[in-house]
Write a structure and sequence with these properties.
About 40% of the residues lie in helices and about 15% in strands. It is built from 8 helices and 4 strands; from the N terminus they run E-H-H-E-H-H-E-H-H-E-H-H. Bound molecules: 2'-deoxyadenosine-5'-diphosphate and magnesium ion (MG). 2'-deoxyadenosine-5'-diphosphate binds next to loops.
Length: about 150
């Protein structure tokens, strides 16, 4: 069972796309276990993006994710990481396939609308820095057997 952290970034919230983004993961069959509307602090942004520290785009990335409120979601499921990444699309929205979130709504790498964890380890790490365990709901979906064989 994998966990992935999804963030509808400030541009997605400003453009009224946070519901559309939630809908796509929900419809895909990922199971929501936590969600919150929040403003990311600089400290939290720096911990979340620690692996990018020192890269030329790092400061801009931290500015962007802290520039307005975001909707943060945690999902759980078999193969959740890869499933979410394929729903999100390529990092550069102008190259992202049509049908993906970035490919349908984005143009610029600095406004790519959504974050998704890139590995099971990062999924666990990122979910745990954005959510306390008591903010995550363990629940069974009645449709489970129609989504997974
Ligand atoms: P992703 O968000 O697809 O996982 P990433 O983890 O490599 O991509 O990078 C995190 C974010 O940093 C990405 O969503 C946009 C920004 N970014 C990455 N590479 C960049 C670059 N070469 N120039 C500008 N921004 C970049
Ligand atoms: Mg990444």
């Amino acid at each position: 069972m994998e966990r992935t952290l999804i963030i509808a970034k400030p541009d997605a919230v400003q453009r009224g796309l946070s519901g559309e983004i939630l809908r796509r993961f929900e419809q895909r069959g990922l199971r929501l276990i936590g969600m919150k509307f929040m403003q990311v602090s600089r400290d939290l942004a720096e911990r979340h993006y620690a692996e990018h520290e020192g890269k030329p785009f790092y400061n801009g990335l931290v500015d962007y994710i802290t520039s307005g409120p975001v909707v943060v979601m945690a999902f759980e499921g078999r193969n959740a990481i890869v499933a979410a990444r394929t729903t999100i699309g390529a990092t550069k929205p102008h190259e992202a396939a049509a049908g993906t979130i970035r490919g349908d709504f984005g143009m610029d790498i600095g406004r790519n609308l959504v974050h998704g964890s890139d590995s099971p380890g990062n999924g666990e790490r990122e979910v745990s820095i954005f959510f306390n365990e008591d903010e995550l709901i363990s629940w069974g979906r009645d449709t489970e057997k129609w989504i997974f064989e």
